[in-house]
Amino acid sequence: MDYKDWKSTYEKIVSDFNYSVETDEKAADVLDKLLQEKKNLFPISTLKDLINNREIMIFGAGPSLEESILKHKKKLTDKLKIAADGTTTALLKNNIRPDIIVTDLDGKVSDQLKANSEGSIAIIHAHGDNIKKIKKYVPELEGEILGTTQINPEPYDFLHNFGGFTDGDRAVYLADHFHAKKIYLMGFDFSGKIGEYSFAENKDKKLKLKKLKWCKYLIDVLNKQNSMHYL
Prior knowledge:
Blueprint: H1 3-17, H2 21-36, H3 44-51, E1 55-59, H4 65-71, E2 80-84, H5 87-93, E3 100-103, H6 109-117, E4 121-126, H7 131-137, E5 145-149, E6 159-160, H8 167-177, E7 182-186, H9 205-223, E8 228-230
Parallel strand pairs: 1-2, 1-7, 2-3, 3-4, 4-5, 5-6, 7-8
């Protein structure tokens, strides 16, 4: 996904949610500067090699997640595992460490810090609503890390934009960007219910459901080009 191909979708999202491009830029500035101080940046070339032509399992925070993990646990051993934010907690609970965590630091961050310190690559996303969390948690990440933004990444030295909006669909766009062989989706429920590992207790549920609709739409766009396998 090149930014020129993503720009029009980003502008529709900004319009639909009444977001501020300026605050997205501010978040990107903050994350980029913090990453300048990190010595554990994960190389893009290595990320490409990690995903390219691999079977990828991506975990979404829908209500079916934990049941699906237990049902399909044997299928996970030979696949690269990408956790969307709060699903890291569900995986650790079941003694599974994700290979990659795609996060805007909205779930149980202590579990993400733990997984990162034990080898999970943390791909941290900057947007206008998580500046405080970026400032708080990025310096605490001990393991390998990468930064993403939803705006044009060209002005930044350490940020990338692979496409996608929510943690779940950004994980899918990441896998697609680096030409995964197959993409399996676990816990991606679009039934109108919010799963436990969304950690949405103190969040606007209507806003969360609206984001889920965008998540489904964005995955469906890719699904027309690269078949997704729902579990």
